[in-house]
Amino acid sequence: MSVISWIVLGLLAGAIAKILLPGRDPGGLIGTTLTGIAGAFTGGWLSARYLDRPIANEFYDGATWAAAVGGSLVLLIIYRILFGHSRSR
Q: N or C end of the chain: smaller count of CB under 10 Å?
């Protein structure tokens, strides 16, 4: 997959992570989108590096999507822990 594919996958993975983990995010839509993109890259790298599951060259591979959404969820949780209380309610 190209870098553009990873960015699109990250956008979609960030949206899925936001649906699975609803609530107010400190960064709003842009922060969630960037977290999704970073999560897709991170999840893909961790999957290839530590789980011995190389990333397929197909956009519709289930393991690639699971790694991207999982990475997005982890980064979204970390983002909320670090910056969740900086916004006034």
A: C
